[in-house]
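Repro case for the chain-ordering regression, as requested:
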Amino acid sequence: MERGSVVNKSARRATSVSIRGLTKRFGVKSALDDVSIDIAPGTFLVLLGPSGSGKTTLLRCLAGIERPSGGTIAIDGEQVAGPKTFVPPERRGLAMVFQDYALWPHLSVRKNVAYPLATSSLAKGDRKSRCDDLLERVGISHLSERFPNELSGGEQQRVALARALAAEVGLILFDEPLSNLDADRREQLRIEIATLTREVGATAVYITHDQSEAFALADQIGVLNQGRLIQLDAPETIYRHPTNAFVARFTGVAGEFPVRVLGEKEPNRVEVALPFASGYAIGASTTEKLGPEANVRLFVRAVGVSLVAPSHGSGVCGVVRDVAFNGHGYDHVVDVGDGFSLTKIYAASRFERAQNVKVCFDPSSCFVMDSSREA
Amino acid sequence: MAIAAVESASLTTSPKDPRRRGSLGGVLLWVVLTLLIIAPVLSFLILGVSPRVFQQGSQWFTLKYVRESFSSYSGQGIFNSLWVASIVSVLAVTLATTLAWLIHRTNVGGRRVWAVAMWLLLMMPTWMMTLGWSDLLQPFGGAQALGVNTHWFYGEFFGPLGIVIVLTSAALPFAYFIVSAGLQGLGPEFEDAARIHGAGPLRSFQTVLPIIAPALLSALAISFAETMSDFGVAFTLGYHAHFPMATFMLFSAISNFPANFSVAAVIALVLIISTVPPILLQSRVMRKRSYAVLSGRTRAPRRREFRRGPRVAATAGVVFVLFIALGVPILGAVIGSLVKNLGIESATGVHFTLTYYSQVFHPSVTGKSLGAPLLLSNQLGLVVATGTGVLAVVLARRLIANPGSWSQRVTDVFLLGSVAVPGVVLGVGYIFFYNIGFVTHHVVDIYKTLPLLMLALVANAVPGQTRFMAGPVSQIQPSLGEAARVHGAGRMRAWRTTNLPLMSRVLLWGWLLTFTKTISELAISQILYPPSQEPASVSIQSYLANYDPGTGTAMTVMTLFEMLAVIGIALAIYRLVTPEGWRRIGWSGVQS
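-- result from build under test --
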């Protein structure tokens, strides 16, 4: 196997990853607390969480840059970190795209990309052709003799991507690779990461704090908070059935309100009274058994809220506080009374500031949770 | 591939091993530092108040030598050193700040040349500077040979004025490099923000100044410490001008008969104590308000574009300062080495000759040529610079690893304290410690040998070299090494292919600095050279003082040019053998 790797990473064969009870402490501070994840070969897993949630630490433990304080990590069924084992990064058979690119400034673009091939069994000519091919695929073949400081941020990150793909390993790690790029380049490179990684068939672990990036890329999303894995599911499940309030908030809500449960309409669906609209009730989904005395909060996704003219028959009365053009329509902030408001409400046509509107709720995008159980 | 392979790999890389390796390495490092610096210095210093500890007197505790040190001629030396160091540090920082601003932030002419000149100044020992000035100014010396009358200044130079000029010149590069680092990290955005929000040029300057205040304070502290601990000027100019200075009084206390180690220890203690407060103060300030504001977003500083007239004036100013600091000493020594009967009145006037150069390697007076001492000095330089480089890299990595940790703080304080230990104190400490019966019988018996001199020279160079390297080493992003490991490089290959290229220039310049400083080092060499194995600096001093000043001056010039030749060859080799990428990046200490 290449690089004298302990872990089998034969070209283009996706590897599986199994993380069991992983903990990492820095002094008294716990960065990871009993995290367990199984990643099937070829999966694109995105770890989503705010700063300090432990996602970077998890990635670095997986890479072998950090040593776990407890738990085990196995790549393709072989333990690389455990109570008596620690396989160094170079023998784990993986590649990584770093947040700060980590391109070696004294090496040209070509030499940066060829670096992982230095210890491979490939002939010199084959290495060169693989480099050329990769540079071509990431669209920077014309920059191959430049040095990193002569490239833009987007070009640098393309070099880092090509380098990660060069060794044809079965596992590629991405450490917030798009966070230093502007919106336009971020979108372009996101698409390239998604397509190229799937093209080579590698398993990918990608960390980000941007939920839209996570939803766009992932086969599976793991949401982390304060060192713990809160939910691991398909993106659709995370969005539609968040496990708790933290996941709901972190994956984007237009508003949340304390509500009173009026009764159960059908299994996993209740009717709740809104605090700012007396006599107005809406349906919402739940995974919990909630009684009328429960301390409950309603979470509303932006996609489940629409604005209509005040003359419209149904809906909650509100006043537009702010409006912003987003290119294909308008995002509104609407005050709905009693100090409550809803944000990011999309409408194809513009409602002006201070204009009265009616707000309609789609029950499928509303869910309630017992707030006394918040994580 | 099998699980067994993983397990066998884990035998050498289990999670506990690196920590154990790290702590073992730490213990080993501190054992080395104890033998190199801590034990020799402390065992000597304790004699100041407790001479009986090492059978240097009858008292376990006494303040007699403290009183003696302050009440006698040595007290005058301490006082002189303190006030000279105060003036010199202020002058050096003022000049260095002006030069750094002109060279880094304006379009002043010859910027690359001045940056290199600062390096040469840094490498030039103070005794060589003194010699150059003296040869130029003395009656029947270099200036007179050129038809310039300098009699009026000669008397002035051999006194506090000359001492201040030479020591300011010597402190100038230290201050310059520190302030330059501060200025380079100061992007234009701060000044722009001040101007945009209504501040004029003066108020903008006042707004930005506090950002580099820690750098100025740092430069002040280092200049003060360097001046206090200088031996070259005290041994040459101070002695001849009857202007006692602390380091020379310390040397006298141990070289006179009978030697008074206790008085020497008190003077050493005063030297160290006087330099520790300013260094600790700047260290505290630096910790709270780092002037290192370089980041990925920092843009290159903008240069102020002078028009033709001011540009010529600014360039002339830089030329004048560097001519005084570097040009005069070199010119003086070179001309002095060519003047027949240097400093001796002749009825036929002053004439030029090459006789002294023929005497350098075939002397008729003593038979002691410069060849063997210069060869010895080069060998010392090679060993000391290499040893210091290795130790300094290890210490610099330790200094920047785990910021805020206990081990990092101890290393930091130790290095700061060690910078304040003058070479002469270290030399005397070595004489003392490595002659103690217990040490010679149970630790190492190297008293009066070349290895002892080598160790002392390494000990003298390590603290400064470590601090010199810490900055560039800390600028290397850890992710570069991590990326190499993740992409298949082992520990050594990762270091060799990522860290080494990025550090190569600072390693080269650090090596050259130690090499040249070792060749010209005087204080430790004078104290510790083994019988019949004189290094070049000691040999030259004995020529200058006892035999033939003209030949001594020619030897000085030959040594100086030999040092320059080594620098030139080393830089040329670096340019020839390193890949282009190595030279494009990394530390930019010689770029303007």
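Ordering looks correct now. Chain B has 27 helices and no strands.
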